[in-house]
Amino acid sequence: MADGVSDVALSAIKAGWRPEEVAAALVELADHVMLGMLASRDVECSQANLRRR
To answer: Is the pTM here over 0.85, yes or no?
Structure first.
């Protein structure tokens, strides 16, 4: 996975992004992925609770 992230980062830098911008964007992306996973888990738990009723 590290190779893929490095490739994306290098591509962004070659496209004109500053390394700090790339790092911030990757952190934000990871945060959004995690929040999406947590939201999906919460929805699944809520659906399971509703089915039990």
So the answer is: no
